[in-house]
Write a structure and sequence with these properties.
The protein is α/β, with parallel strands linked by helices and 535 residues long. Helix content is 51%, strand content 13%. α5 packs across α18 and α18 runs antiparallel to α19. The model has no long low-confidence stretch (mean pLDDT 92). The structure holds one RNA strand of 77 nucleotides.
RNA sequence: GUCCCCGUAGCUCAGCAGGAUAGAGCGGCGGUUUCCUAAACCGCAGGUCGCAGGUUCGAAUCCUGCCGGGGACGCCA
């Protein structure tokens, strides 16, 4: 949150407490229109009810208090129909432009160092990454960076399910591709991608089951990581299920559940008594099958104990749409371990439909029908793909039209934003050629409505980032950047920045556009998109 | 049957921690360049926010029901 917004909020809260004796959380939002100033406060409405007084009177009292408290920052405070509208001052904005020149612009301590674990992608090591994985990667990685910018200690984590039935199925499938068995097993993976791995395994002379398993998983995981790197996504931590299985955590889990009387045996299997938790709509789930083999759920719970054991105060999992039915189970399990919603959260990344040649492709790894992340990156550049995935909320289904993506080069709004940055770089270069410099700029010369409007937009940058961290939804940043770029393009059209006949004004404007470029660069950087000097 | 997501402009979607006149991109129509990048800018047209109730000073936003579309519901992972 911007410093001024924090100050305003804290002050109003204290003021209300002192004056009216009411605990009240003020809602301070960007004014919907420039003519209403920068920030609007709606406190008068809610207080009017409690105090049984006219909202206009209360608004006026708040307004007066605010304007006398912040003589430097606040130019005036207006009251319109009960809204308290705060207009910030010129000196304040001049100061803001200076701050916006720093690479730390937008940083704040909203997260207060909270240690957060973000687990995303976590694709099974049974094949290449698909487009939902790509979406999750774009979302998770951007969140990690934005949250760090907002003072969270955010870590990204990738979980590798390198054990269990699916790995057996993978091994048997690759053996079929190696010619070591006559047919593809029923639950096998039919995708062509296994052919190249089979060849490599054959060349390595590997035939033993255990060795095949180990190598195929490593090869696929390695390729996944390479693709993710190409997508500019790196993980802080990679955890393997096989590690969890061998660790102390399954035992710890068992003991904890036993101590709470939350497990029982039926038909030779061991169940988790989810129904006893009451408020979660969930049935009892198997932890250990009657054949003695623990379920995925069992190790997943153990894995989450491990996460919290590493000191994370909040753990967020981003899962694909096929896992949504699994959410209540995990929530119930973690609640049983006293880890409720405040500390453990699951977000579902909704499906991505690939449209190719005008029709939808149904994707199934097992059937071998895929559209992979690396194929996507062969067709669309990384900047465009990263930006594209953040153009809409991940909670909504996304139609990704490959044919459109191919020709998206000019239409994709990412270029619109990048172009603003490139244009500014060009201005700076040209200015230098003309002997103009930003040195010793007098920012008081920035008086046009367009300049004011852009400064106002800069003001909201930290607010947008904080909101993203809070809601764990990164897509508003693309809308923010597009809006800022739009305002710049408009400004560019109307006003000359580098004008040799007016070096003083040019210095001020050069400083100003540099600040704009910097905000764009920071914003794009946070979502893994480059800010080119030229286009 | 139970659960999840979606329904806002011709199309794809923002907005949904309730606030003031509902926005963007694309598409359509019409303009702008001897001038710092036209990958740009400006203007116009286009909406009963799926429907019906409810809560509220105030509802696209919250609640209930219904309709329509997509998806998930294993001793798979």
């Amino acid at each position: 949150m911007s410093k001024i917004k924090t100050k305003l909020k804290n002050f109003i809260q204290e003021f209300v407490k002192e004056k009216y004796g009411i605990d009240h959380e003020p809602i301070i939002s960007p004014a919907r229109d420039e003519k209403f100033g920068e920030y609007s406060v709606t406190s008068a409405f809610s207080l009017a009810k409690e105090l049984r007084r006219n909202p206009a009177e209360i608004a006026s009292e708040i307004a007066q208090a605010v304007s006398s408290k912040f003589p430097f920052e606040v130019e005036k405070v207006d009251i319109v129909k009960g809204f308290v509208n705060i207009y910030l001052s010129k000196p304040f904005f001049q100061n803001l432009v200076k701050e916006a020149l720093s690479e730390n612009f937008g940083r704040c301590n909203a997260g207060n160092g909270l240690k957060v674990n973000l687990e995303f992608v976590s694709a099974n090591p049974t094949g290449p990454l698909n487009v939902v994985n790509a979406r999750a990667a774009a979302v998770g990685d951007s969140l990690r960076q934005i949250m760090r910018h907002c003072g969270y200690d955010a870590w990204s984590e990738y979980y590798v399910n390198d054990a269990g039935g699916q790995i057996r199925a993978l091994r048997e499938s690759v053996k079929w591709r190696m010619g070591l068995r006559p047919d593809l097993p029923e639950d096998g993976y039919a995708g062509d991608y296994l052919i190249q791995y089979a060849e490599r395994l054959r060349d390595m002379g590997i035939t033993e089951d255990h060795e095949i398993e180990r190598h195929i998983v490593d090869m696929i995981l390695n390729d996944q990581m390479k693709t993710l790197e190409r997508f500019r996504v790196k993980f802080d931590v990679i955890t393997r299920e096989s590690f969890i299985r061998k660790s102390k955590y399954p035992k710890i889990l068992e003991e904890k559940l036993k101590a709470k009387n939350l497990i029982y045996e039926r038909d030779g299997a061991i169940y988790f008594r989810a129904t006893s938790l009451g408020d979660i709509d969930e049935k009892d789930r198997v932890l250990v099958r009657s054949n003695g083999e623990p379920t995925y759920f069992y190790f997943d719970l153990a894995y989450h104990i491990y996460k919290f054991d590493r000191g994370f105060q909040k753990v967020v999992d981003f899962w694909g749409p096929d896992h949504h039915g699994y959410v209540p189970r995990m929530k119930a399990g973690l609640k049983a371990l006293d880890l409720d919603d405040e500390r453990f959260d699951v977000k579902i990344i909704q499906q991505v439909n690939i449209i190719k040649d005008g029709k939808r492709i149904r994707m199934s790894k097992r059937r071998g029908e895929l559209f992979t992340l690396s194929e996507l990156l062969d067709e669309v550049n990384v900047d465009a793909a990263r930006f594209f995935f953040l153009l809409r909320s991940y909670s909504s289904h996304l139609d990704f039209d490959i044919d459109l993506a191919r020709e998206i080069s000019v239409k994709n709004p990412v270029y619109y934003v990048q172009y603003a940055h490139a244009r500014i770089s060009s201005i700076m270069k040209k200015a230098q050629e003309k002997g103009l410099t930003a040195d010793g700029a007098d920012l008081e010369l920035l008086v046009t409505p367009e300049e004011r409007s852009i400064m106002r937009e800069m003001l909201f940058f930290p607010d947008v980032l904080e909101d993203i961290s809070l809601k764990l939804e990164p897509h508003p940043i693309t809308y923010y950047l597009t809006g800022l770029a739009e305002k710049f393009h408009n400004y560019y059209q109307k006003h000359t920045v580098a004008d040799p006949s007016n070096p003083e004004l040019s210095a001020a404007r050069l400083t100003f556009v540099q600040a704009i470029a910097n905000v764009i660069k920071i914003g794009l950087g946070l979502i893994g998109v480059s800010a080119p000097e030229e286009m």
